[in-house]
């Protein structure tokens, strides 16, 4: 039996009024979309990552010049750079809304979900979204998420990796989420949900989101404390492009975006 969890944690803030100073910028980011997500990962995990994303998930993978792995996810690219230590991250892959159950069957055929077996399924009522979680060989906490009304091709049959729509979420662990949210707002990427003052905020738009987390929080649904590691996001935004870089000190830099 599938276990459905209605979540009342960091992804359940709903569409309530945002705190003063974080109201959405009047620029509508209907085109905000993550194009490239580059992460530092354990150098020793590269062969397993290639096998996991390529052979097991059936995604197009190539070796990068630095010995890492590049993975095509819909129209986006996930780049896993080799690095010292054991960095780990959170990111989400976007599933067509009408293919969630097929995608869940697909991923459980490739790896065990966090929580065991075929579940649990996490239901985010405020977002009209559903998700399951798993880890990859580098320890990244990966989410498969679908949002009602986002990508409904009407396909049938078994799911395959080439149906993924792209990278839905990129986690950025920052020492000061409120300051990071303001920095993104200046670049024209508004917070659309969450509370930066409480240590969690979502910037961008539904289905295409930068997740700003303080180091005091755990990455859902685990008990692993969010830890800053180098993360670089290139996204389409407001008719241009924006590059967001987080480092191991929890600092955030933003280039491009609204002039």
Would you give an account of this structure?
- The structure is a single chain.
- Residues 1-10 and 12-28 have low confidence and may be disordered.
- Strands 1-7-8-9-6-10-13-12-11 form a 9-stranded mixed β-sheet, with helices on one face. It has a 7-stranded mixed β-sheet with strand order 3-4-5-2-14-15-16, with helices on one face.
- It has one domain (4-9, 27-150, 157-256): 2,3-Dihydroxybiphenyl 1,2-Dioxygenase, domain 1 (Roll).
- It is mainly beta.
- The termini are far apart.
- The protein has helices spanning 46-56, 100-108, 177-186; strands at residues 4-6, 33-42, 61-63, 69-73, 76-83, 90-94, 121-124, 129-135, 141-147, 166-173, 191-195, 200-205, 208-213, 231-237, 240-246, 252-256.
Question: What are the main properties of this structure?
Answer:
single chain, mainly beta
Coarse structural class: mainly beta
Helical percent range?
10-25%
How are the strands of the biggest sheet laid out side by side?
A: 1-7-8-9-6-10-13-12-11
Largest sheet: 9 strands, mixed
Q: Report the uncertain regions.
A: 1-10, 12-28
Question: How many individual β-strands?
Answer: 16
CATH architecture annotation = Roll
How much beta, percentage-wise? 35-45%
Report the C-alpha radius of gyration, rounded: 17 Å
- Helix/strand order, N-terminal first: EEHEEEEHEEEEHEEEEEE
The CATH first-level class comes to Alpha Beta
CATH domain fold name: 2,3-Dihydroxybiphenyl 1,2-Dioxygenase, domain 1
Mean pLDDT: 88
In total, the number of domains comes to 1
Shape: globular
Helical segment tally?
A: 3
Distance between the termini: 51 Å
CATH superfamily: 2,3-Dihydroxybiphenyl 1,2-Dioxygenase, domain 1
């Amino acid at each position: 039996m599938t276990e459905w969890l209605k979540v009342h944690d960091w992804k359940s803030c709903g569409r309530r009024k945002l705190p003063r100073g974080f109201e959405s910028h009047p620029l509508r980011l209907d085109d905000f979309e993550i194009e490239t997500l580059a992460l530092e990962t354990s150098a020793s995990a590269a062969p397993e990552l290639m096998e996991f994303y390529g052979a097991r998930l059936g995604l197009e993978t190539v070796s990068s010049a630095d010995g890492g792995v590049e993975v095509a996810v819909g129209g986006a690219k996930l780049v896993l750079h080799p690095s010292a230590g054991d960095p780990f991250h959170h990111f989400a892959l976007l599933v067509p809304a009408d293919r969630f159950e097929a995608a869940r069957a697909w991923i459980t055929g490739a790896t065990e979900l966090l929580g065991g077996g075929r579940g649990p399924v996490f239901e985010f009522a405020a977002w009209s979204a559903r998700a399951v979680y798993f880890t990859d060989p580098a320890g990244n906490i990966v989410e498969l998420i679908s949002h009602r009304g986002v990508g409904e091709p009407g396909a049938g049959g078994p799911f395959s990796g080439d149906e993924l729509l792209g990278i839905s979420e990129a986690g950025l662990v920052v020492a000061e989420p409120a300051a990071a949210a303001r920095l993104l707002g200046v670049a024209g990427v508004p917070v659309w949900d969450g509370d930066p003052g409480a240590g969690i905020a979502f910037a961008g738009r539904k289905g295409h989101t930068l997740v700003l987390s303080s180091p005091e929080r755990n990455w859902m649904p685990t008990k692993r404390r969010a830890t800053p590691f180098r993360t670089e996001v290139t996204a389409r935004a407001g008719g241009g492009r924006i590059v967001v870089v987080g480092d191991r000190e929890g600092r955030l830099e933003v280039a491009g975006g609204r002039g």
